[in-house]
Amino acid sequence: MSLDATTANVKKMAEAADALGSTIKFSFADGAGVIFLDGTQDPTQVHNQDLDADCTINIQYDDFQEMINGDLNPMAAFMGGKMKIDGDMGVAMKLSSMFS
């Protein structure tokens, strides 16, 4: 799936989830780009600009695809080292409502 299609999918998920109140960036370690969520806006803005965020989640693009498809549990990805979090861990925890 292309980054644009994935971004559109994440936007739908963000619209259905609780407000984040923070900014989060998914940075794909394999150079596939970024997905940025600005949860300080209503509705949450989702785009591919590489901006500073309250929390940055570093993950391989394929692992991210598995996570949003429900095939990889976010906690298992973190505990297994597939996902690394820089910044506010509390912000990352807010994502559980989006991926459930």
Question: What this model shows, in words?
Answer:
The protein has helices at about 5-15, 60-70, 75-80, 90-95, and strands at about 25-30, 35-40, 45, 55-60, 85. It is α+β, with helices and mostly antiparallel strands. Strand 1 (about 25-30) and strand 2 form a beta hairpin. About 30% of the residues are buried.
List keywords for this structure.
single chain, 100 residues, alpha+beta, 5-stranded mixed beta sheet, 4 helices, 5 strands, globular
Derived from helix and strand composition plus strand pairing, the structural class reads alpha+beta
Instruction: Note the overall shape.
Output: globular
- What is the arithmetic mean of pLDDT? 90
Helix content: 25-40%
Largest sheet: 5 strands, mixed
Could you tell me the strand content as a percent range? 25-35%
Strand tally: 5
The side-by-side strand order for the widest beta sheet comes to: 3-2-1-4-5
End-to-end gap = 21 Å
